[in-house]
Amino acid sequence: MKHFGILRSSKLPLRLILVVPFVLQIFAAVSLVGYLSFKNGQKAVNNLADQLTTKVNGLVEQHLNTYLATPHQVNRINLAAINLGILNLQDYQVASRYFWKQMRVFNIGYISFANPKGEFIGVERLDNGELLINEVSEKNSLGKLYVYTTDNQGNRDQLTAIKDYDPRVEAWYADAVKIGRPVWSQIYQWEDKPEIFSISSSYPLYDDSKNIVCILSVDLLLTQISNFLQDLKFGKQGKVFLLERSGLIVGSSTNEAPYNVIDGKAHRLSVFNSNNHLIKGIADYLQQKFGSFQQIHNTQQFTLKLQGERQFVKVTPWQDKLGLDWLVVVIVPETDFMAEIDANNNTTILLCVGALVVATVLGIYTARWITQPILDLTQASSAIASGNLDQTVKFSGVKEISILAQSFNKMAGQLNDFFTALENTNQELEERVELRTKELKTAKEAADTANQAKSEFIANISHELRTPLNGILGYAQILQRDSTASPTQQNAIQTIYHCGSHLLMLINDILDIAKIESKKLELYPHTFKFHDFLLGVYDICRIKAEQKKPPF
After folding, report:
1. Burial class (CB in 10 A: 0-12, 13-18, 19+), 103
2. Which residue among 156, 286, 384, 436 has the highest number of C-beta atoms inside a 10 angstrom radius?
3. For residue 216, what are the β-bridge partners?
4. How many CA atoms lie within 13 A of 411 on its CB side?
5. Which pLDDT does position 149 carry in this prediction?
6. Helices (H) then strands (E): counts for the chain
7. Residue range 526-547, pLDDT digits in tens
8. Composition of the chain by helix, strand, coil, percent to 5
9. What are the Cα distances from residue 297, in Å, to 244, 250, 329?
10. What does the alpha-carbon distance between residue 122 and residue 99 come to, in Å, rounded to a whole number?
């Protein structure tokens, strides 16, 4: 019974078996849904970031292709006008108005020309949109730049400043003269305004003798490129910047200027000295991965974690036919996409947790609804096992359990009837056994008495038979010693002796049976001659055989 109790205590309850797998399945399903939702959200973020960076990169490239093509178009137009005689660069009044009208048409920062003497005509656009005419002429004084305001017709209005200026020392002039073909200049500072950085598309003009006549130039200000980048709105914190292969910033969508002022003098800003942690962090990563920006030949797309936030980055080389070689870097923080996705994930998690709680409660209620009738059956079974057969189980709402309860009640009734009948039968059987026991006791006493009488009879008979038989055996032994007896007589005497011995052995066996009944038999093993034993058996059987005379 103790072993049985241990087995029972080691078993799991049915309610636990029903609830736990159900809850585990729901939990697994909820976890899988949450995991797939999270992975799909990550995948959607990656795809969206890729699409957005590709789109922004395409817009930047398209703008650069269009915006940086404008200076070449203006230079070609001016070159054609000079060849056609429409534009006379010797007439500074006409040339300045011509450039002024072009500045009204094209979105550029400066149009100018300069000749080997140092003479110069240029039209400048101020930040407020006002156009100024700048002139260095031999008539006024070489090396002196006269700055005039203009009216709405492009005519000179007032002289506002006179500055020292030699155009021939600036990059837009010197690079074109040195290379001898249309070229982009290096990004340079204006001599009269060091805080302004620009890049010039310079076209050299030669005479028939291959002597330089003048340099036509159209300037683009770095601030104009930065303004365009700042107008690109993508995401909440998306950024884009351009840089040269040397690492100097051309323009960016941040409010940081592409130059810094050291000791009152403006210097171009290196990407490694940027105050923007994203720009600097990405530059450090590229420098570490490629060694230098010169090694970036193909589009690079990667994710980088800066200050605890993932950044989607796309780096694309951009080049044109005249030698510009820049890198376009687009940055999209993951947080720009994750707000709505995090909200959806939180909603999904709450729904999953709610579903898990509801499913758990329903599972517990369902398990209780199923197990309670079974527990009632178990208690009724235990009561029956304890001997209380008067048990009835109520029917459940579950069909199968109701059938089981009905069968149990029927079985309990049958067991009750059976045990009642068995009790009556046992009572009758006990009475019959008691009666039979008395009869057996009486018979045993009679048998014991008869057995005692039999033992005494056998003992007396054996004594009466043993005495004459011993006399016969004695005389047979005496006759065997007679030397005058013939062989036939000797054999007859031997047969008499053997028969007498056999008879004596039978008498002893009868006495042994009495000893066996009284449990007093003792065995005394001794040796004998097997040949004589067989001869004795032969002689005994021969006498019977001769009497019956068998036909064989």
Report:
1. buried
2. 286
3. 113, 203
4. 12
5. 93
6. 11, 16
7. 787 787 778 777 777 776 777 7
8. 55, 20, 25
9. 13, 19, 14
10. 7
**121 and 135 in contact (C-beta within 8 Å)?**
yes
Spell out where 222-258 has E strands: 239-244, 249-252
Report the length, in residues, of the chain.
552
pLDDT in tens, 294-349: 888 888 888 888 877 888 888 989 888 888 888 988 888 877 666 666 677 677 77
Lowest mean pLDDT among 125-139, 165-179, 476-490: 476-490
pTM surpassing 0.70?
no
Task: Give CA separation, 467 vs 454, 472, 507, in Å.
Answer: 20, 9, 12
- Our CA angle for 199, 205, 208, nearest 5°, is 165
End-to-end, the C-alpha distance of the chain in Å comes to: 75
Give the DSSP letter of residue 13.
P
Read off the tokens for 171: 């990059």
Average pLDDT, the chain: 80
- Model confidence at 29: pLDDT above 90: no
Note the pLDDT tens digit of each residue in 366-414. Answer: 777 777 677 776 777 777 777 666 666 666 666 666 777 677 777 777 7
Phi, psi of 251 (to 5 degrees): -175, 155
10 Å Cβ neighbour count for 329? Answer: 25
278: Cβ contacts below 8 Å, ≥ 6 apart: 239, 306, 311, 331
Q: Which residues of 376-400 are buried (b: 16+ CB within 10 A; e: fewer)?
A: bbeebeeebeeeeeebebeebeeee
φ/ψ region of 235 (left if φ > 0, alpha if ψ in -120 to 50, else beta) reads left
Instruction: Tell me which H or E stretch contains 176.
Output: helix 171-179
Joined tokens for residue 128: 């407020």
Question: Hey, CA dihedral for 391, 396, 398, 402, is it positive or negative?
Answer: positive
User: Residues 181-198, buried b or exposed e (16+ Cβ, 10 A)?
Assistant: ebbbbebbbbeeeeebbb
Structural contact between residues 199 and 170, judged by C-beta atoms closer than 8 angstroms: no
